[in-house]
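Exam prep: given the inputs below (a chain plus tryptophanyl-5'AMP), describe the expected output before reading on.
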Amino acid sequence: PKVVFSGIQPTGVPHLGNYLGALRQWADLQSSASPSDKLIFSIVDLHAITQRQAPEALRLHRREMLAAILAVGIDPNRSIVFEQSRVPQHAELMWILSCGASTGYLSRMTQWKSKLGVGEDADAFASGNNTPRLKLGLFSYPVLQAADILVHRATEVPVGEDQAQHLEFTREVAGTFHSSYGTVFPLPKTVLSPARRVMSLRDPLQKMSKSDPQPPSRILLIDTPEEISKKFQKAVTDSEEGVTYDPRARPGVSNLVQIYAHMQRRTDFHNVANELKDCTMKELKDKVAGIVIEGLRPIRDEYERISKEGDRYLEIVAEEGARKARESAEETMVLVRHAMGLA
Ligand code: TYM
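Solution:
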């Protein structure tokens, strides 16, 4: 049987990139799973605190993310949905794995560099007087991610392309553990969704992201139809005539074509562009907005319904999910502690 694990940071209501790159895939895997498969989805609040968070905002954003995960169709009676901080085994395994994790490997990872805005210029960064800015938690972020996956002995991890590097690291860390203590973990497979990288509407060379300071750069799953139309109307394209698919030469237009295709579960982008070839930019944007509005409508309705049920309902779901996740993680930790002489 498969064990599917994935995680998402509590950034509040997720954006279209999170949805097409991850959440929709989670729901698909849930529908196609056989009864013996285990599905586990985590709101990774311990990862979120590698960036400073205001406590009230974090509380709110965890709740919003949970409501959104349910709204896209994850069924808490079928899948385990939980908040990472309620399952202490994640942090316990992280410590154990960090004892075998190479700082050289971690220093080559790109995420902390982009979070600190040091780009690829990491050597200059490290030799300068900047190191106090790099906190240990942000540096070791991938070790906690490896622990998330391994503590449930996951076999598949559905993610967007930006997480592929972290999954390679996970397999590396598992291999190191195995050569010291014997095999405990399956080596988890990376499952990339067809929408690997949805780009920003304001800068199509950057991925759509919650940390972009410009809200019009992203569509949120509960944006109103008016907001969605407005954001697409403002999307950066180019001044060429007609629609073609060429991500290098026409990144903005190609991103819109991709979004239009993914909303229909198509990946034949050239054909899709060809069907749209006579559209003006305004017509293209209207069409993309229309299909996104229709596609997100049921999610927005469901989110509203869940919000009306109130915090008590979400608290019950979170507590029940955490209980099941602790059980799943503890089974692995018994093996880990035994293998290491910690039992
Ligand atoms: P996070 O919270 O940044 O993103 C959650 C998921 O959404 C995908 N994603 C995108 N896909 C396509 N286009 C985009 N513009 C886009 N933006 C985000 C991400 O690839 C991801 O699948 N480190 C992880 C969270 C994590 C995790 C884990 C994931 C912690 N532990 C264990 C898998 C397994 C993160 O920050 O994702």
